[in-house]
Write a structure and sequence with these properties.
Layout: H1 2-12, H2 18-21, H3 29-44, H4 46-51, H5 56-70, H6 73-94, H7 101-128, H8 140-146, H9 165-183, H10 187-210, H11 223-241, H12 244-265, H13 274-286, E1 293-294, H14 313-320, H15 328-334, E2 339-341, H16 347-356, E3 357-359, E4 364-373, E5 377-382, E6 386-392, E7 396-397, E8 400-402, E9 405-406, E10 411-413, E11 416-422, E12 429-434, H17 435-439, E13 442-443, E14 448-449
Parallel strand pairs: 1-2
Antiparallel strand pairs: 2-4, 3-4, 4-12, 5-11, 6-7, 6-10, 6-12, 8-9, 8-11, 13-14
Helix pairs in contact: 1-11, 3-5, 3-11, 5-6, 5-7, 6-10, 9-10, 11-12
Length: 452
């Protein structure tokens, strides 16, 4: 049955959850998912590994250490594994099995040593670069430990029944694990099944009880385990019924259900990456490599950002608490950033963007303002010092003077108050826009890029 379960799990893993097919956050969670799937396979194929005399604890430890180096969610998975292992030992003791502590302690030591390998290498690299710790924010200790330890973050600031999910689940899961062990053909098979179930159950209940901020990605480490357990349950029911024809029918229904689920979440006719790829293409077209682009989490990929911080939940909580500087707007002004991507921007930053930028396709914002209908004299404020062009929705660029000097194709406009005087005959709506965007086809009125 484990081998059949693996095949079903592989088929199941081909589906595309919504938080994987649209990874505009550039998160490492898909990597974590792949490694978590590897953990599940290690547990399922423990017999084969034993026959080949491989060091299972070391491999498991290395895998967990690699996961921990990618995502903090591994701490929860590791904690669930520890509780699950202790639970299986307790069940074995209750079943009258003799527990020899020596091999278990040896295996635990090998797992711990394996876990330390990859993080240890990373710590040594950061120490070599003199970036392990120190004052300020730009060091490994702050980024990995201190930044993520925010008082009163999310659930940590709330009392409620959710705090009891985990303790209530302990006897329920142990009872289910006991049932799996008693109904298995041999003790080792039952213990492995119980370990899978307890790991899955403890992870889910720990997550929902104590993890401060829960997102769809937080369930990635145990999705493969859930599928393995579901496949095992399905085949167990089919074995009880004892009808061979039902097995093929059940597998067909599972595959049909998966196809329907895939279609529901990600239709082949609906490109959910279009916005992301479109934004990337627009940024590459409108900017040069030395231009800064303000985005939420570095999703512009090929352009540097004006700020150090990634605008995710913990960072925003720290900004609101005054623990780190609220410097999005000051940094954009100081660095003359003329392009922004409206993703994960806070309300106050979006309000400022609307006053000083013009929006375009794919959530791209360009420095400039719509000054409204043309009139002889227009007074306006500019906050981003840069080269700008004045355009009209009726006739492209316009003629007149700015602060007493003739308008030219592209001219530098410093921050501050300015006076625009238009020549007679000007009509339509008038706007000033970052000159590079105008030269490269951006139309502030149609809100798109004209491709020549």
């Amino acid at each position: 049955m484990p081998h059949r379960g693996i095949r079903i799990q592989c088929i199941r893993s081909m589906r595309c959850p919504i938080h994987i097919v649209a990874p505009v956050d550039q998160r490492p969670d898909p990597v974590t998912l792949g490694k978590a799937r590897g953990i599940g396979r290690l547990i399922l194929e423990i017999r084969r590994l034993q026959r080949e005399k491989r060091s299972i604890p070391s491999v498991l430890g290395l895998t967990l250490g690699a996961c921990a180096s990618v995502s903090m969610k591994t701490t929860l998975l590791l904690l669930a594994l520890v509780f699950a292992g202790l639970g299986v030992l307790l069940l074995a003791k209750l079943a009258g099995r003799r527990i020899d502590a020596g091999p278990y302690l040896k295996s635990a030591l090998l797992v711990v040593l394996g876990i330390l390998v990859v993080p240890g290498i990373l710590v040594c690299v950061f120490a070599k670069l003199h970036a392990l710790s120190g004052p300020g924010f730009n060091n490994m200790y702050y980024c990995v430990i201190r930044h993520n330890s925010v008082p009163h973050l999310g659930k940590w600031n709330k009392l409620g029944f959710h705090l009891f999910y985990f303790p209530i689940s302990i006897p329920i899961l142990l009872g289910a694990g006991w049932a799996l062990m008693k109904t298995a053909t041999d003790f080792a098979t039952g213990a492995r099944r119980a370990l899978l179930l307890l790991t899955f159950g403890f992870f889910v209940t720990l997550l929902n009880s104590y993890w401060p901020l829960i997102t769809a990605q937080d369930y990635l480490p145990v999705l493969p385990l859930a599928v393995i357990l579901a496949a095992g349950g399905l085949f167990a029911v089919l074995d009880l019924i004892g009808a061979p024809g039902l097995t093929a029918a059940a597998i067909g229904l599972v595959l049909a259900g998966e196809l329907a689920d895939m279609w529901h979440w990600q239709s082949p006719f609906d490109n959910e990456m279009k916005l992301f790829t479109g934004a990337t293409a627009s940024i590459l077209r409108l900017t040069d490599p030395d231009d800064l682009v303000m985005d939420g989490k570095g999703e512009s990929i090929y352009r540097k950002r004006p700020i150090y911080w990634v605008l995710e939940g913990i960072t925003i909580t720290r900004i609101q608490a005054g623990l780190i500087p609220d410097d999005v707007i000051p940094r954009m002004i100081a660095t003359n950033t003329c392009v922004a991507l409206d993703h994960r921007m806070r309300k106050e930053d979006k309000d400022w963007l609307r006053q000083n930028f013009m929006d375009g396709e794919n959530k791209i914002w360009i420095a400039g303002k719509n000054l409204g209908p043309a009139k002889p004299e227009i007074v306006f404020e500019n906050q981003i010092a840069a080269d700008y062009s004045f355009v009209s929705d009726k006739g492209g660029r316009i003629a007149g003077t700015l602060d007493g000097k003739p308008l030219v194709h592209s001219q530098f406009i410093p921050a501050g108050r300015h006076e625009l005087r238009l020549d007679a005959g000007g009509s339509g709506n008038v706007a000033f826009l970052w000159a590079k965007a105008v030269d490269r086809g951006f139309d502030p009125f149609a809100k798109n890029i004209k491709h020549s």
